[in-house]
Amino acid sequence: MTSLLVRAFGMLLGAGGVWACVNAMRAQAAARAWPTTTATVVHRGVTRVTGPNLGAPAFQFTPDVRCRYTVGGTVYEGGTWYPPAVLRPPRGTTAWAARMAASVPDVTPVRYDPAAPAVACLHLVPEWKLAAAAGAAGLVAAFALVM
Question: Where are the domains of the chain?
Fold first, then answer.
């Protein structure tokens, strides 16, 4: 009975992971089609991330880069590292986050959501990260099935 419960939990966990990865891949594909515009960096810094699943205290920092850009005559200020629906902001040490923020040029392209131009991102998530996460989730489900 316990083995059956462990298998069911593993299958649900793996299937949920695959589902989340597929949704992230869909959101990434939509963000890839977003138009780009030129933005000017108005702030660079490091932000300590708050919330659940923080991990080790030394790895709770994210680059904080805000840009100013114009769409259809309206000026917007903001931007996230990755498309918000795809992946949480990257996290690391203070030094790593500062290096990442400093790596963004003063004038940089941003992708913005044409349906909500206030939503913009600096980068897309590397495809290999999404594929690796989906593969790992699939392995969890497969392992639970053959356990």
Answer: 2-146
Residue type at position 119: V
**8 A C-beta contact, residue 26 and residue 134:** no
Yes or no: say if 121 and 85 are a contact pair by the CB < 8 Å rule. Answer: no
**Tokens for 107?**
């004038």
Backbone angles phi, psi at 23, to 5 degrees: -65, -40
- C-beta of residue 69 within 8 angstroms of C-beta of residue 35: no
Question: C-alpha distances in angstroms, 84 versus 3, 98, 124?
Answer: 38, 21, 10
**Rounded CA gap, 23 and 19, in Å?**
6
Q: Are 141 and 100 within 8 A, CB to CB?
A: no
Three-class DSSP category at 36 = strand
Helix (H) / strand (E) containing 57 = none
Q: What is the DSSP letter of 92?
A: B
Express each pLDDT in 18-73 by its tens digit.
Answer: 888 888 888 888 888 999 999 999 999 998 887 766 667 667 888 889 999 999 99
Q: The pTM is what?
A: 0.73
Cα→Cα distances 127→57, 68, 87, 133, Å:
28, 27, 12, 10
